[in-house]
Amino acid sequence: MEVPAFAEGEVPVSAVVQILVEGMVEGYIEEWSGSGTIISPDGLILTNAHVAVGDRFYRADRLTIALTVAEDKPPVPAYMAEVVQSDAGMDIAVIRIAYDLSGQRIDPSSLDLPFVQLGNSDDLRLGDPISILGYPGIGGDTITLTSGEVSGFTSQAGYGNRAFIKTSATIAGGNSGGLATDADYKIIGIPTQVGAGEITGDIVDCRPLADTNRDGLINQYDTCIPTGGFINALRPINLAIPLINAAVEGKEGFAVAELPEVELPTGGSIIYQDDFSDTDTGWPVEKKSDESYFFKSGRYYIVVEGANNIRPITGGEILSDVVIQLDARVERSSGTGDFGVVCRYQDGNNMYMFEITQDAYYAVYKMVNGEWYPLIDYTYSDMLEGLTDARFNVTCIGNTFTFAVNGKLLGEVNDQSIASGDYGFFAGTFDETGNTISFDKYYHMDYSVEITSLVYEGFGFGRLPDGKAVFVPGVLPGEMVRIRIKEEKKRHAYGELLEVLKPSEDRISPLCQHFSTCGGCHYQHIPYHQQLEYKSKIFVEQLQRMGGIEDPTLYKMIPCEQEWKYRNNLQFHVLGNGDLAFMDRAKAHPFKVEECHLPMDEITKIWPLLSSGGMSAFKRVEVRQNETGEVLLKMESAQPDLPEMEIAASISVVHVYGDDQVVIAGDEKLVMTVLGREFSCSASSFFQTNFSSAEKLVQTVLEMAEGLSGTLMDLYSGVGLFSSFLADKFDQIIAVEASPSACVDFSINLDPYDHVSLYQSPVEKALPKIDSSPHCVVIDPPRKGMHRYAMDALLEKKPPTIIYVSCNPSTLARDLKKLIAFGYELQRSVGIDMFPQTFHIESVNLLTLG
């Protein structure tokens, strides 16, 4: 047979083959196919292990090689091949053409087949072009070419950071084992259906031939032969080099992935344990013709007599995150039966299963609404050959599940289909009947984490057993805590505190009943002097980690004069029944407020009077107090109509709807006093929330501006707090503020001064248009920091001095990084604790242009 050659730089069409596979499935000979690539003139072919060898249900017995004779014609069967190297863990195999179609052995040196040169997958970069050739088995019988580009790399334990090459190309499942080339048409990867563990499309050519899920039917819910679906990952050619070299040297063998020893998670407190010596612990007992489960000789037995039957046993407790350990023994083997652990069992149609089989396979499956899905499909391990005694260690934590047997890690997967459920164990059969498994020393534990430090936003920091960072509220360094994973990201997770197993000596009792629920306070469990120490440390860490500042120094952290009752402003959400509410820690759900110890006295007297049915017409309610005890109530709604309501207090009331407002009672503003200076402050204007700390804030800004003169620019000026105190020191004040109500108040508060100008605009829009070269700029942005356009405009003006007032060290660090890169030097940072019991950190930072 003549196979066309290809020149260098041409698409290597004729080096791609179709591999036709025959195997015995359920007692019948079945056929399926995959693709492969000729990599030597004497007939070495690179493909997938699951194509060349098969798996537990689809054993490959005969491999026929069909050669590509033309781009527009089906491949022509020409030879038979044998497997010389295979690695099931990588899903890579090297096969050799060994026989003609009549079964006569051939001399490989006489073949002289076209072959592909090996490339270097380590040279690939994001965006590099990739071409994939193979026989997809979908929509036709001829070879296809799919183009794409490198879209990423995926790591895997034991295989490094380039365990998979991800590609933007959509690759049909039949191309599995085929050819992936670089721009020079050298092989750089092998498409594989392991696909980096990702499902990227519907299965469109699935041929289930065995009842792999034991529901009595062979249908779309059973494991498929390796021809269908879509994949988007390649195994790099560099991983296959050892197998290729071994094949070239004439070695034969099957590489079995070495299972790593693992440090098994110990969990936290044992919440249930049973050695099955007591028959009254609640486990079910029943004897039937097809299955039985009972206590015997200090062990618990499951006997499964029928074929394709599975019997889970659960303990009757619903949990989310748990660590399970269980001993199991094969008392009677069916030869192919299985046994293991069930996790998050909700009913017979929803659960996770971790299993090993008596013919040396392991798997992790989930059942969702009665349908089975493999998370780790049946995988062979020589460690399981002849295994009669097994210790299972299974962790079900958040979206991550790990599976170990006898101290060896079999697999780790991620899934979020089932959040909670019961826990237990099972035994089952496939075609062969008669499986008896006994169990002993069962226990499960809640999940525990050691907290090593406090970080910004009120979280304690710890690590999960896999090394992933976890953030937990309401904890202290050195504590061992029991948690539930609430949210899981790629590199970190958020946990909910369930119990403090080992408390810190520094822990104190929170004052408020809502502390564990409310999102307002974060540090009530920490003595105040230590709150200041933690805030100082966190401030420095933020500047180091996010700002890249090597050795930042916090000059001092100025404490608040009052640990409690310091807030002059309190905001509430309104529940449907009119009750006032705060948001929970997750900022997802409001809850009714029964107490709060942060507001000043007059606010504390007023807000409990506000909860009523009439308040349900409003979205939010805000109560503000000045130093003389006057109170202003702002009520926000979407409509101008007001319900009938009565408030038994002498206060000012303003109704705000959209951009409009109506004064219902009293005045539309309060007069706030700082360092003896009065400030007009309207209902919708921002004002510093803590009077005593606001005075320290102003004093710190004045100290940093000492000796300066000329033009001052006050960005995010608000009602003019800083401009008012600095107006006597500078020849010109230019202020920028976006809030219309704050601009009105600014005009009133700075009315005595003729050298002050105000721009009502967002800073990022106004600053580029202001023709001025300020000598000093005071910046007091919101928590999100400076807009990048505002930063660009500021740097163009090159003010010699910048005083940056920040309420968020994370965005401060980001902005300082840009300022320092431009040439500014951070001279001094002063912390001011404006919000005791919370993670918030106010600071004033002095920068000068070098």
Write up this protein.
The strands form eight sheets. Strands 14, 15, 16, 17, 19, 24, 25, 26 and 28 form a nine-stranded antiparallel sheet that branches. The chain has 850 residues and is mainly β. The chain is built from ten helices and 51 strands. The N and C termini lie far apart (79 Å). Strand 30 and strand 31 (459-463) form a beta hairpin. The longest helix is centred in the middle third of the chain and has 18 residues, at 528-545. Helix 3 (528-545) runs parallel beside helix 10.
What tags apply to this protein structure?
mainly beta; 51 strands; 850 residues; globular; 10 helices; eight-stranded mixed beta sheet; nine-stranded antiparallel beta sheet
Number of helices: 10
Strand content: 35-45%
**Fraction in helix:** 10-25%
Structural class: mainly beta
Low-confidence stretches: 194-209, 224-230
